[in-house]
Amino acid sequence: MVSMIFNDPSSAAAFHRLSFTRFSNGLVSLRRFVGPLHVFSNTPTLPRALSLHAPRSSRFITASMAAEPSAKVIDGKSVAKQIREEISAEVTKLKEAIGVVPGLAVILVGDRKDSATYVRNKKKACESVGINSFEVNLPDDASEQEVLKYISDFNGDPSVHGILVQLPLPSHMNEQNILNAVTIEKDVDGFHPLNIGHLAMRGSEPLFVPCTPKGCIELLHRYGVDIKGKRAVVIGRSNIVGMPAALLLQREDATVTIVHSRTKNPEEITRQADIIISAVGQPNMVRGSWIKPGAVIIDVGINPVEDATSPRGYRLVGDVCYDEACKIAAAVTPVPGGVGPMTIAMLLSNTVSSAKRAYNFN
User: Fold this and answer.
1) Catalytic residue ranges
2) CATH no. for residue 257?
């Protein structure tokens, strides 16, 4: 049998590893994502084609649905499109009522192609909903003080309502110092310690929730998945996804277990879950044998694997073996087209919320 490496991004700078057996997938690092639970209080019902329910039933997906030929696809791309339409309407309303246009500032350091692509996508998304976009591009050898100066300027700029520092940063910079420099009122990434602290406290509300875990919960809400009282497993404990996702599930009254690099019998624990959120950056780690029949799976992983048939020489897969999951789970997010589009949609949502809060606009 071949050993497998389980990546647990429990901090921005360190990865812990634990060998497993049975699988031969290569190691691929977890990609970084950015980004209250409902976007707006009155959201229209999804088209029937996106619903996990039978037309006349409002019950939670049951294990009996696993007998169907394939799981329902949780279409994050379609949901994100609907959310962007809602956000666009809110931006128009805000502009017409008080003459304010929400603004998002993005700081990019270095020339990483993936980071540049993410920034481009965020800028395009801003334009699509009417949000002003401010962009700073710095070379890889820029100083930490330069970054902090731009953050300070954006903190004091009333036309900027959200500030995002694209991660990862070059190794010579103190990532936490830079993230902490963003004022909590403009921390649309939701990474500020005070936002995370409020998220962890019962009876306390953060100003912003990290975008990727927020998008995961929004998908569950919009597909009518009942979270209360369900057993949920989060695979991975990163500050960006795993930890806040677990906190959000607890706020929804789920019973939550976190599986990480030091967990014994992760397969056995995961198989007990009604809801699985996986965010470890290990391609196809979660096999069909890990999944309880009828479970709902949110796959945050986006991992390139070699594929000679692809023009690019690779294809993208999730942490969950999609083909196997489709035969057992009640519902599963695809990769790509699942959580990824939701992350950017939640970033836009947080930016609009920040602008509305700044002017006490409801």
Assistant:
1) 122, 166, 189
2) 3.40.50.720
